[in-house]
Amino acid sequence: MSDTPPTEPSVEEVPAEPVSIEGYKALKAQESDAEDARPFTTVRDQVFHVTTELPAIVILDLGVASDPGSTTGEKLRALRQFLNSAIADDEIDGFNHLLRTAKPAILMDEMNEITEDLMTKVVAVPTE
After folding, report:
1. Of 81, 120, 122, 128, which has the highest C-beta tally within 10 A?
2. pTM, to two decimals
3. 64: left (phi over 0), alpha (psi -120 to 50) or beta
4. Which residues contact 113 (CB under 8 A, 6 or more apart)?
5. According to the model, what pLDDT value does residue 122 have?
6. Longest C-alpha distance within the chain, in Å?
7. Is the dihedral of CA 34, 36, 38, 42 positive or negative?
8. More confidently predicted of 110 and 66
């Protein structure tokens, strides 16, 4: 045996990089999502949770609205009902407020991306 005391492992300091506001928000959203396992969508850096109990009639209405014989009004109503049903009840007011007041305005291309993301998330939600 040696009389030499054990040496402490060396610790190398690593300089911290500055954290941006966007990076901080993303990190907080990730932490929040780890605590809340509900699926979510992000619109303009705001996180909205996707409902886990979408009424089947909403999906059926979307199917009917996709028929070539349906009117533009029927298609838009079905899409609007889907959006209102897909976001968690406690967050729908904030979601609708953002859709109406975002600057610059949310145009149809972005709305299509939002809708596509929501449809993907709703379909991925397990049903018992």
Report:
1. 122
2. 0.63
3. alpha
4. none
5. 82
6. 91
7. negative
8. 110
